[in-house]
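Tokens for chain A. Residues wanted.
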């Protein structure tokens, strides 16, 4: 089994053969992937070495100390956090070799074609149809709240392939080429002024059966892998102490003593402790992932992430007083990533409102935690055994 010493040796060889100071960024990232140092726990030939997941930190620390470039994970977060683990688990060997390298290097951005206007919180009620046609499928429907669709090369898509069975059973999972005819991406301008989200219209889009992930009709099970990894990637991201939203408000508190009051001090202390507890809990969750696949605990982390972001950003606006009401730029633009800490307090306050919606609403996640973590009785579901076509809509 590959150990820490072996990984350090391989990292040193990579740095010697491709010095970060003189090697093109893309070339370095491709060499890192080919050396098995992208995801060390992935199989050999797919960016890894079959090593324990915990040893990734050894490689990352060595490369960071050497000034090596990263793959800009915020820009390609959907690919890294959702598409890649799903492809690894359910993809064919051909699919893994086609998609994983350009995904990790950042050559190809991914988006998630799941939510629909009539199927957000109840995702299994989706109505986008995929009809078999020879060696492929013809897809028609609409998706919404699709982050990064305007820059994406590929989309992970779930569509209904059998309306005659209950809603969870008639779904199939595909990889959609966002450049294909019939794929139309329209911006959705948000409360922040930006349009990082989109709505996507699919009209007679042809998808080869070779781009199907998993078996026909098994898309809900495949999608659960995506969703569990999504919640871990959102709520369990690795942060340093005072990383994330608590950082800017803590810095303002230290630098602007004239803004302090006793009440704000007590609230800041409480939120600082809660943010640190969430950070350490996320670290423990990542350590649990070493032994297997993500579980429903990620839903709890995502819940905490949303609540803390909203409470911390609200405190920051209140701390700044009149300054907190200012907004730096309301220009309509379509960014490639969300930058919580690079903008002002007003942006953080407005953008955090979406945290309790994206990646699973807080209400749905509370049900998941109640049923799958705490073991409480499930809510009554009268539509569980009813064919999708017979459901009231």
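Reply:
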């Amino acid at each position: 089994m590959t150990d820490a010493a072996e990984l350090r040796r391989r990292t040193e060889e990579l740095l010697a053969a491709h010095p970060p100071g003189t090697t093109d960024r893309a070339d370095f990232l491709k060499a890192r992937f080919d050396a098995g140092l992208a995801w060390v726990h992935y199989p050999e030939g797919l960016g890894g070495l079959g090593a324990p997941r915990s040893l990734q930190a050894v490689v990352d620390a060595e490369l960071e100390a050497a000034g090596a470039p990263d793959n800009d994970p915020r820009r390609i977060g959907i690919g890294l956090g959702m598409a890649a683990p799903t492809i690894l688990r359910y993809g064919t060997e051909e699919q893994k070799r086609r998609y994983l390298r350009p995904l990790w290097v950042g050559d190809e951005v991914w988006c998630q074609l799941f939510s629909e206007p009539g199927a957000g919180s109840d995702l299994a009620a989706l109505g986008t149809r995929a009809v078999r046609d020879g060696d492929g499928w013809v897809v028609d429907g609409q998706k919404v709240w699709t982050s990064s669709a305007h820059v994406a090369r590929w989309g992970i898509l779930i569509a209904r392939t059998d309306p005659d069975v209950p809603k969870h059973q008639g779904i199939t999972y595909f990889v959609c080429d966002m450049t294909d005819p019939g794929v139309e991406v329209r911006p959705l301008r948000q409360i922040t002024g930006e349009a990082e989200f989109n709505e996507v219209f699919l009209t007679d889009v042809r998808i080869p059966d070779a781009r199907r992930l998993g078996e026909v009709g098994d898309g809900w099970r495949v999608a659960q892998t995506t969703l569990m990894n999504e919640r871990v990637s959102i709520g369990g991201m690795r942060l340093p102490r005072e990383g994330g939203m608590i950082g800017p408000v803590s810095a303002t508190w230290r630098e602007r003593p004239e803004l302090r009051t006793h009440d704000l001090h007590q609230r800041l202390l409480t939120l600082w402790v809660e943010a640190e507890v969430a950070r350490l809990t996320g670290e423990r969750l990542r350590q649990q992932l070493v032994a297997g696949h993500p579980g429903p605990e990620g839903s709890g982390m995502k819940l905490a992430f949303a609540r803390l972001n909203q409470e911390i950003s609200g405190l920051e606006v209140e701390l700044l007083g009149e300054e907190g009401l200012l907004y730096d730029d309301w220009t309509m633009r379509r960014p490639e990533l969300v930058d919580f800490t690079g903008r002002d307090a007003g942006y953080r306050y407005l953008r955090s409102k979406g945290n309790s919606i994206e990646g699973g609403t807080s209400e749905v996640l509370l049900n998941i935690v109640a049923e799958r973590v705490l073991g409480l009785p499930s809510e009554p579901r009268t539509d569980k055994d009813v064919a999708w076509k017979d459901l009231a809509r």
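Residues 262-289 form the longest helix (28 residues). The beta strands are 110-113, 129-133, 136-143, 154-160, 171-177, 183-188, 197-208, 212-213.
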